[in-house]
Amino acid sequence: MLALPGSRVDNGCCHMSTELILIRHGETDWNRELRFQGHIDVPLNDMGHEQARRLGLRMAKEKAQHLVSSDLMRCQQTAAPTSLQLALPISTTATLREQHFGAVEGMRVDEIQAQHPRAWEDWLKFQEHHAMPDGESARQFHTRIIAALAQIALAHKGQTVLVFTHGGALDMVWRTARGLGLNGPRQSDIPNAGFNRIRIEDAAAPENIEIVDWADTRHLADLPAQPTYDQKRYLAGKPSAA
After folding, report:
1. Alpha-carbon distance 235 to 186, whole Å?
2. Which residues share a beta bridge with 190?
3. How far apart are CA 171 and CA 185, in angstroms?
4. If DSSP states are collapsed to H, E and C, what string results for the chain?
5. Which residue among 82, 93, 111, 207 is the one 20 to 30 A from 154 at the CA level?
6. 150-177, pLDDT tens digit by residue?
7. Superfamily of domain 15-220+227-235
8. Phi and psi of 49, rounded to 5°?
9. Using CA atoms, how far apart are residues 66 and 25, in angstroms rounded to an integer?
């Protein structure tokens, strides 16, 4: 692992980088059932709890000062073993929630195709300003997530913060760090309970993200294969886990 930088002086201002360890929540039954979860408060299944337990053991060596989680149950349950290991209280915020999918939350792809066929056709274009009925566009979602990370980085300059969130939020981080834009299907691997480490050098410029580690699942190595969320498979007419 790279050493955490200290501070640097830039035109008389001192910037201290913040290290964020980003974790997607563990597995839920709705991951297995290929449902769009969004803001619905779905709990972990047995596999998700085991993933969270193993993650907690891995996290025992981390020198983190704070733990922040999406307020949705699946993230808080994933964070709980780590909270116990490190004796860190869980601070929750709705700003780290998954993208809001509006009227299609809780549905499988076949149900969306039957009940909202036009919305599904538009979704497959993966355009940043499109939103499901009563939902949140990728652009709105991205703005929310980057603002949430900026707030964390500003509040905890020079520290390490554990952040438990959702797959879509991690996609926003990956796209921002790689300069990919918000159009097009997801390009990165984002496994349940995977380990991701980033740095934000300056909270005033949170879009300048350095990826240190991504999609590390060594702590889950001997568990059954996860449901894979691959948006490119949707374009090919094949289902994947939302």
Report:
1. 12
2. none
3. 10
4. CCCCCCEEEECCEEEECEEEEEEECCCEHHHHCCECCCCCCCCECHHHHHHHHHHHHHHCCCCCCEEEEECCHHHHHHHHHHHHHHCCCCEEEHHHCCCCCHHHCCCEHHHHHHHCHHHHHHHCCCCCCCCCCCCCCHHHHHHHHHHHHHHHHHHCCCCEEEEEECHHHHHHHHHHHHCCCCCCCCCCCCCCCCEEEEEECCCCCCCCEEEEEEEECHHHCCCCCCCCCCHHHHHCCCCCCC
5. 82
6. 999 999 999 999 999 999 999 999 999 9
7. Phosphoglycerate mutase-like (3.40.50.1240)
8. -65, -35
9. 17
Distance CA 170, CA 36 (A): 16
pLDDT digits (tens, 9 = 90+) for 190-218: 999 999 999 999 999 999 999 999 999 99
Return the structure tokens found at 108.
């499988």
**CA distances (Å), origin 211, targets 13, 132, 197, 200:** 24, 30, 6, 9
Please give the single-letter amino acid code of residue 200. I
CA distance 129 to 71: 25
Contact 132, 102 (CB under 8 A): yes
Q: pTM to 2 decimals?
A: 0.91
